[in-house]
Design a protein that fits this description.
With 301 residues, the protein is α/β, with parallel strands linked by helices. The protein has a single domain, classed as 3-Layer(aba) Sandwich (Rossmann fold). Helix content is 24%, strand content 28%. The chain contains seven helices and 16 strands. Helix 3 packs across helix 4. The radius of gyration is 20 Å and the shape is globular. 39% of the residues are buried. Bound molecules: adenosine-5'-triphosphate (ATP). The site of adenosine-5'-triphosphate (ATP) has 12 residues, from helix 1. This is Zinc transport system ATP-binding protein. Its EC number is 3.6.3.-. It is an enzyme of class 3 (hydrolase). It comes from Ensifer adhaerens (Sinorhizobium morelense). Keywords: ATP-binding, Hydrolase, Nucleotide-binding.
């Protein structure tokens, strides 16, 4: 595995007291954090707290009206926005989606689709894809040009719980393989992927920042989310001896592929707290596990 985040690593992006103002209102203000190669930074915060605005400012889609943003010279960014402006009434294949915003060689398209497990859908119509397949196609598009920094705005939207785990696993693999930095916007206030190095909790400003564990225990986080913070800031953990392929089949540790996983398969075998039943999608009624950081009970006073 690559040696991520050595102390001398120069950040890919650093926001210094950055603020964005529109129509006389500060959308975000005083935002400070950086992303280094191989680092995963997750932005969390309530709706309208400025997560997308911050991500766009980080990559230069929006300009900071206050403070400044430093970027590594020649920084290549792969961006999966929260919303895509595509006319869904027009036919659009996955292959074509890949080249909408710029040319790619056939080999590059193939490599990217294969890396995200949707090569078999290259000729499929985008509007017929499932939520998980669509997110994988968008991810393929973002990694095709081999970015230094991958920015994923709610990459698990429209994806069921087992699909979320698979997508987070894929994001981790991309980071491990390429060493790119990742800025992730979490759709869920209380769940971040296990490999997150730094959580930045926004509420128009940086409410608190640090490791998932530090943020979950911070009084600011608990104050911001009140009663809901009394539950947990959970971290995805993934332990398994088989992999669910995008086409629904199951790849086992011995290399065999079956239609369903076996009842005794061990990818959800821990009997921890915070066990979430994610249904019977894979045919064996197994469980996925969220590894929770316990927060002290804190009711709204
Ligand atoms: N171009 C703009 N002009 C004016 N206001 C804007 C603009 N873009 C965003 N906003 C406002 O800025 C605030 C932050 O929006 P942003 O999309 O960054 O929040 P978010 O945390 O990503 O929200 P969500 O979780 O709902 O996606 C919101 O109140 C939004 O209405």
């Amino acid at each position: 595995m690559l040696n991520f985040r050595s102390p001398e690593t120069t950040p890919l992006v650093r926001l210094n007291n950055a603020g964005v103002r529109r129509n006389g209102r500060w959308l975000v203000r005083g935002v400070e954090f950086s992303i280094s190669p191989g680092e995963i930074v997750t932005l969390i915060g309530p709706n309208g707290s400025g997560k997308s605005t911050t991500a766009k400012t980080a990559i230069g889609v929006l300009k900071a009206d206050e403070g400044y943003v430093e970027r590594k010279p020649g920084l290549k960014v792969g961006y999966v926005p929260q919303k895509l402006s595509v006319d869904w009434t027009l036919p659009l294949t996955v292959e074509r989606l890949m080249t909408l915003t710029g040319p790619l060689k056939g080999r590059e398209i193939e490599e990217a689709l294969s890396a995200t497990g949707v090569l078999h859908l290259a000729k499929a119509e985008v509007q017929h894809l499932s939520g998980g397949e669509f997110q994988r196609a968008l991810l393929a598009r973002a990694i095709a040009r081999k970015p230094d920094l991958l920015v994923l705005d709610e990459p698990v939207q429209g994806v069921d719980f087992s699909g979320e785990i698979a997508l987070y696993e894929l994001i981790k693999q991309i980071r491990n393989r390429t060493g790119c930095g990742i800025l992730l916007i979490s759709h869920d206030l209380h769940i971040v992927m296990a490999e997150t190095d730094t959580v930045v909790c926004l509420n128009g400003h940086v409410c608190c920042t640090g490791t998932p564990q530090a943020v979950s225990q911070s009084p600011e986080y608990q104050k911001l989310f009140g009663r809901r913070a009394a539950s947990t800031l959970a971290v995805y953990s993934h332990n398994h001896d088989h992999t669910h392929l995008p086409d629904g089949r199951v790849l086992h540790a011995d290399g065999s592929i079956t239609e369903h996983c076996y009842p005794g398969d061990g990818h959800h075998h821990d009997e921890d707290d915070n066990v979430h039943d994610h249904g019977d999608d894979c045919g064996c009624g197994h469980h996925s596990r969220l590894h929770g950081f316990e927060l002290k009970e804190k009711r709204d006073a």
